[in-house]
Design brief:
Layout (H helix, E strand, L loop, with lengths): L9 H20 L3 E7 L7 H12 L2 H7 L5 H13 L6 H8 L4 E7 L1 E6 H7 L9
Parallel strand pairs: 1-2
Antiparallel strand pairs: 2-3
Helix pairs in contact: 1-2, 2-4, 3-4
Amino acid sequence: YHPALAFLDIDEYQYAESASLDSLINELGRSNTIKERYVGFAGLTPNEYLLYEKLKSKASQYELNSLMKHYSPVVRVYAYRALIDNEMEVNATYENYLFEDTTSVNWFSGCVYKASTVQQVVEQGFVHESNDF
C-alpha cells in the first residue's frame, strides 16, 4: 500500500515514475565501475548491479537508447546492456559510438577488478548467468 500515491492522477504518477528513473540514473552515474551480479570473494551482489536491474525493468527502449549518450560511461554501458538483455532495438549510430569509446571505466566481475574502457567492455561482452558447470 502506497498512501502517497493513492490520490495522484495518472499524470502525477507518470511524473513520479520519471523522477524515480532520474534518481536511479543519477546514482548509477556517480559510480566509476561496472559491476557484475556477483563480485568479491563472498560473491555479493553490489548496489550498482541492483540499480542496473531496476533500470532494465523501468526504462523504455527510447530512454535506454538516449542513455547511450549519457555523460557517465557506466550509465552508457548499462543502458546498452539493458537494450541487449531486453532484446530491444539498439540505435546503430549510438552503438557505433560505444564501440569507438575509449573513456576509462573500471570493471568488477567475480574477483577480478580491472581498469578498462567502454570500448573494451562492450567488445568483450558481458557476464551472463549460466547454469552450466
